[in-house]
Amino acid sequence: MSRHDRARLDDIAAALVAIDAHRRRGDLTDGLVSDAVRVRSIEIGEAVKGLSSENTSEARVRSSA
Questions:
Q1: What is the 3-state secondary structure (H, E, C) of 4-41?
Q2: pLDDT at residue 7 tops 90
């Protein structure tokens, strides 16, 4: 795994921790919590798009099973 991919995976993990923290403050009916979770979800999507195909092809196989 490249250093770049490791950094992207670390970004994803950090965003997931942040989402968990936001959700503990309130549910998604709270606009602030909803916006925070949405932004972190966008960050996750961007990080996933930046992963090399070597690290995303296996995930595609698992998700289609």
A1: HHHHHHHHHHHHHHHHHHHHHHCCCCCHHHHHHHHHHH
A2: yes
- Sort 31 into a burial class: Cβ within 10 Å, 0-12 / 13-18 / 19+: exposed
Which tokens hold the place of 22? 């936001």
CB count in 10 Å sphere of residue 21: 11
Dihedral sign (CA 60, 56, 36, 10): positive
- Cut 0.90: pTM above it: no
Q: What is the pLDDT of residues 9-64, one digit of tens each?
A: 999 999 999 999 999 999 999 999 999 999 999 999 999 999 888 777 655 555 55
- Report the greatest alpha carbon distance in the chain: 39
CA distance 18 to 43: 11
